[in-house]
Automatic annotation (TrEMBL):
InterPro entries: Zn_peptidase_2 (IPR007395). Pfam families: Zn_peptidase_2. Keywords: Membrane, Transmembrane, Transmembrane helix. The lineage of its organism: Bacteria, Bacillati, Bacillota, Bacilli, Bacillales. This is Metal-dependent peptidase. The keyword Protein transport does not apply. The chain crosses the membrane at residues 128-156, 192-218. Signal peptide: none annotated. The keyword Metal-binding does not apply. It comes from Bacillus badius.
Length: 226
């Protein structure tokens, strides 16, 4: 029963976070920002005001596929946010510009996350191979390698949290100081950003729980060998 509850938790927590961000975004994407500017215009204004005229703002495909690419110095906004005149569009656009400002300032956690990308990719792709080998063959060495590789991926998830929260904090400061939203709209914009942040919190929580479960299994394997 405990394992069933555990796996339900692994499924339901991320699902709840995704539903939360989609419902909140959907609600405030229908609320027009009082200044009437689009997400693309919001991004462009904040970039220019922060000495980043070389960073491009482009439209990208998909739903909530918004992101900042530090390699090309480009802010990518999904169609609804690129063309939208809503509070949600302004908040999301400002959040992605927040990452561009982090990049410019050499924000420590962002640099650390970039350095972790190749290690995290290897860890997420190979960890379960070693874990399954360890489980089926009772080779604790292979299982330990799998745990170490997974730990690298979990570390990436944890480092992502301060990066995302800091970008949201910067976004709120920028949309207000740039006059993109009025003071009365701050609460709505913050709700959009907080809902989006919960997806990262949920992903990190699930990753930590899974790593803890594997460590528990590993200690059990070691005891059985004694």
């Amino acid at each position: 029963m405990s394992f069933l509850l555990y796996f339900l938790l692994l499924i339901l927590v991320p699902l709840w976070a995704q539903m939360k961000v989609k419902s909140t975004y959907s609600k405030y994407s229908r609320v027009p920002v009082s200044t009437g500017i689009t997400g693309a215009q919001s991004a462009r204004r904040i970039l220019d005001e922060n000495g980043l005229p070389h960073v491009k703002v482009v439209e990208t495909r998909g739903f909530l596929s918004d992101h900042y690419n530090p390699m090309t110095k480009t802010v990518h906004l999904s169609p609804n946010n690129y063309h939208g005149h809503s509070i949600a569009a302004a908040a999301v656009a400002a959040h992605e510009v927040g990452h561009a400002i982090q990049d410019k300032e050499g924000y420590a956690f962002l640099r650390f996350r970039h350095a972790l990308v190749p290690v995290a990719n290897i860890g997420s792709n190979l960890s379960w191979i070693f874990i399954m080998i360890g489980l089926f063959t009772s080779m604790t060495g292979a299982f330990m390698i799998g745990i170490i590789l997974m730990a690298a991926a979990v570390l990436f998830q944890l480092v992502t949290l301060p990066v995302e929260f800091n970008a949201s904090s910067r976004a709120m400061d920028q949309v207000v100081s740039s006059g993109i939203i009025r003071n009365t709209e701050e609460r709505e914009a913050r709700k959009v950003l907080n809902a989006a942040a919960m997806t990262y919190v949920a992903a990190a929580a699930v990753a930590v729980l899974e790593l803890a479960r594997l460590i528990f299994i590993f200690t059990g394997m070691q005891r059985s060998e004694e």
